[in-house]
Amino acid sequence: xINKPRGTEDxxxxxxxxxxxxxxxxxxxxxxxxxxxxxxxxxxxxxxFQRGVGDTTDVVQKEMYxxxxxxxxxxxxxxxxxxxxxxxxxxxxxxxxxxxxxLYYLISxxxxxxxxxxxxxxxxxxxxxxxGGTSDATDAEVITLAMSFFERLGVKNLKLNLNSIxxxxxxxxxxxxxxxxxxxxxxxxxxxxxxxxxxxxMRIIDCKSEVCSKIAEKAPKMIDNLxxxxxxxxxxxxxxxxxxxxxxxxxxxxxxxxxxxxxxxxEITSDALGAQSTVCGGGRYNxxxxxxxxxxTEGIGFAVGLERLIMIMKAQGLCNDNDSATDIFVAxxxxxxxxxAQKLVYDLRKLxxxxxxxxxxxxxxxxxxxxxxxxxxxxxxxxxxEIDNNSAKLKNMDTGESFDVELTAEKLAExxx
Length: 417
Ligand SMILES: [Zn+2]
Ligand SMILES: [Zn+2]
What we know:
Elements: H1 16-32, E1 36-37, E2 43-45, H2 46-54, H3 58-63, E3 65-68, E4 74-77, H4 82-91, E5 101-110, E6 122-131, H5 136-153, E7 158-164, H6 168-183, H7 191-199, H8 202-205, H9 210-216, H10 228-244, E8 249-250, E9 262-270, E10 277-284, H11 288-291, E11 299-305, H12 306-315, E12 328-332, H13 335-350, E13 355-357, H14 364-373, E14 378-382, H15 384-389, E15 391-396, E16 402-406, H16 409-416
Parallel strand pairs: 1-5, 7-8, 12-13, 12-14
Antiparallel strand pairs: 2-4, 3-4, 5-6, 6-11, 7-9, 9-10, 10-11, 14-15, 15-16
Helix pairs in contact: 1-5, 2-4, 5-10, 13-16
Bound molecules: zinc ion (2 copies).
One zinc ion binds next to helix 6 and helix 10.
């Protein structure tokens, strides 16, 4: 027997309704906010992620699925969605359109991590990106969209954590401060962080090692070291949220794992799974498009981890949707009725009725048992008499009542609808 690769999951028919519900909520909330769907390739040139995610991040250093294809190119399965969208924005000259460019995606991503609950090697994200939105209202709009998405799904008790990680100007001064702070603990830092100390000390705050995060606790905070422009941007963003009645908490420890973020960063967490866990992370990344060779363009977005979201929704009892049951089961006795039944379900389906019949050569009794298993709303039994008289008994499977009906798809559809 061949099993699925480690860190992957089959999404089984029993779980499909919740996936569809989430996807529909994403499509609908994005439509209301004017975001358009985009679909990009599962794999990209490796350098896109090295440049667009940042080569000092854990994702790029340790977790990417990178391989050489038969043409000798270095290819990587996308570990996230933003870099691909930025690439597409530049490649398709979207900056020539009136701005902002509002895009969203529903994708699978790939990271070679130690598989654990809610963290897979193939996982799924719903995310949005808004390019070219220069005002602080953009930040508020993006955060609002995320909150509306969760609200539409009925997810409760979420916490919005907000922070600003500044711009290149204030980051530079802050990085010096951080470097000076971490210098004192240099010998205790993990190997990865020792190199980060030179290249990008802010990444140390995000390190998953216990020792590093302990040391990082008392490090200077970016939010206390913002330049005037960044400070004003953050204040305006929170003023919008206040006006909209969206509750948030300022959390100076959020830096987000990826290199390209500037100014607003946020995380939406839930305690439904015990400890606080992040279900949505996002922020502003003003440097990304330029880093990838485009004209300077501001960007902001978020991504929701769908596996984690489903765990939360299950914990909150929000996954009780069933795939809609069969509308009618058409049982048949004899060759003539078999053919009639096949034609009848064919015609009913054209009229948008979910119709089923036996495909396993069952007896009539077994067919009716099967109709029960299918949770069919109605059933009908056809034999030679019914066909000759063009009339049969339609049974309501919930109430047990039955009544005579004319044996045409149109008549049946009329009653069932
Ligand atoms: Zn700044
Ligand atoms: Zn570390």
